[in-house]
């Protein structure tokens, strides 16, 4: 059974803080993703990674960076959190041979 | 610009009846489509998918129909059960890439 875990379910941060969201998958998947989910906007892709140390921008990368030092771990970094980054953040992974993505439970981030 | 659209934010159906969730897309390069189901406070889980070489795929109570000429797909749930109450997202991708486009979701309520 594929498991994708995210380090926090809820986070409250202040404007300007640096925020780290961690994601770990246990199925040796090559590809990992970060999405944000907002009402009326669905899931929007922030960044994805297809291999260790490799990353590609998604649709809304501004204000975010990512790190993938190990295959199982993909981190999302908010360099200087802003209130418009208040959102639900979802991590996902998938095997290259399949289109199916497996999602973590999400991190609800509130930036004050 | 939303390439995958779910125009109905919500849908209510009586238990035992059919639920039909609709999804439209604009990009003719999309060749694989997926439906995900999301319960509150959980990440989306994969439900069913369809390749563009097919026009129907069935899995138990769930059937997805694809109309390529209309750029439209639909998810049928028969019979609907209260446990099906969730938000349903459709998603699309082109080739075996990592850029998945999600709709805004439809919240299904199945009334006992």
What are the key terms here?
heterodimer; A: 112 residues; mainly beta; seven-stranded mixed beta sheet; four-stranded antiparallel beta sheet; B: 112 residues; six-stranded mixed beta sheet; five-stranded antiparallel beta sheet; globular
Q: What is the molecular shape of chain B?
A: globular
Overall average pLDDT of chain B: 94
Computed structural class of chain A: mainly beta
Helical/strand content category of chain B: mainly beta
Indicate the proportion of strand residues of chain A.
over 45%
Describe this protein's structure.
- The complex is a heterodimer of chains A (112) and B (112).
- Chain A contains no helices and eleven strands.
- Chain A has strands spanning 4-6, 10-13, 19-25, 31-38, 42-51, 54-57, 64-70, 73-78, 87-94, 102-103, 107-111.
- In chain A, strands 2, 4, 5, 6, 9, 10 and 11 form a seven-stranded mixed β-sheet that branches.
- In chain B, strands 2, 4, 5, 9, 10 and 11 form a six-stranded mixed β-sheet that branches. Chain B has a five-stranded antiparallel β-sheet with strand order 1-3-8-7-6, with no helix packed on it.
- The N and C termini of chain B lie far apart (38 Å).
- Chains A and B meet through strand 4, strand 5 and strand 10 of A and strand 4, strand 5 and strand 9 of B.
């Amino acid at each position: 059974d594929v498991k994708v875990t995210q380090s926090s379910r809820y986070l409250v941060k202040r404007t300007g803080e640096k925020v780290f969201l961690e994601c770990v998958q246990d199925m040796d998947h090559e590809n990992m993703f970060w999405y944000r989910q907002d009402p009326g906007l669905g899931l929007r892709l922030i960044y994805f990674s297809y291999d260790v140390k490799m990353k590609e921008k998604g649709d809304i990368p501004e204000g975010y960076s990512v790190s993938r030092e190990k295959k199982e771990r993909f981190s999302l970094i908010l360099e200087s959190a802003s209130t418009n980054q208040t959102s639900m953040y979802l991590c996902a992974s998938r095997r290259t041979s399949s289109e199916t993505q497996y999602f973590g439970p999400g991190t609800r981030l509130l930036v004050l | 610009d939303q390439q995958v659209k779910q125009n109905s934010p919500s849908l209510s159906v009586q238990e035992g009846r059919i639920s039909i969730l609709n999804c439209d897309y604009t990009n003719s390069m999309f060749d694989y489509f997926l439906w995900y189901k999301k319960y509150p406070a959980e990440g989306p889980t994969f439900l069913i998918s369809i390749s563009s070489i097919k026009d129907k795929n069935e899995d138990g109570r769930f059937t997805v129909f694809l109309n390529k000429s209309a750029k439209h797909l639909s998810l049928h749930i028969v019979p609907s059960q209260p446990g099906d109450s969730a938000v349903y997202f459709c998603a699309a991708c082109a080739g075996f890439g990592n850029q998945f486009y999600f709709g805004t979701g439809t919240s299904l309520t199945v009334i006992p």
